[in-house]
Write a structure and sequence with these properties.
Length: 164
């Protein structure tokens, strides 16, 4: 490679620089791959959240995913227009909307999960299974410290990875 196109050694020596650049590259590749589905990784996250918690309010989804509540409304509008979710008034509190995944939403989520695994496999192709597990465990350790929405999952997932 042409030396003029290389990052400075000082930057490459920084784990945070590498995480940032790899994150940017992963995001670009992910968005490109999702584009063909007509959906966005944000849509995938919403469907995944609904799959874990069958009945969710809009506010609970936004909080769980760290999304702005206004942004979530637009994303839910997209999903509802595609018939992947439906919203209903909460009978206990008429101010709230309950979001439910439709059968078509479940099918779309299965396709998006497959796509996500393919993206992971392509991006991590240079790592063997043990290295992938080690990377994941290290990232979970950092996530537990710096991402409040990961704290409840990191310990359980790390144990699962260690168990093989």
């Amino acid at each position: 490679m042409d030396d003029t196109k290389r990052f400075p050694k000082e930057l490459v020596a920084s784990p945070l620089f590498l995480l940032k650049r790899l994150g940017m590259t992963a995001k670009e590749r992910t968005i490109d791959a999702y584009e063909a589905t007509g959906l966005h990784p944000y849509h995938h996250a919403i469907l995944a959240a609904l799959d874990e918690d069958r009945r969710e309010t809009q506010g609970a989804i936004a909080d769980a995913l760290g999304y702005d509540r206004g942004q979530l409304v637009g994303l839910l509008d997209d999903l509802e227009e595609r018939g992947l979710v439906e919203r209903q008034r909460d009978q206990d509190d008429r101010r709230r909307q309950i979001v439910l995944m439709t059968p078509e939403g479940k099918k779309a989520l299965a396709r998006l999960r497959t796509l996500s695994r393919q993206i992971d496999d392509r991006f991590l192709a240079s790592l063997d299974e043990q290295q992938r597990a080690q990377l994941h465990a290290l990232l979970l350790t950092l996530a537990e410290e710096h991402l409040p929405n990961c704290r409840y999952m990191a310990a359980a997932t790390a144990e699962k990875i260690a168990a093989g």
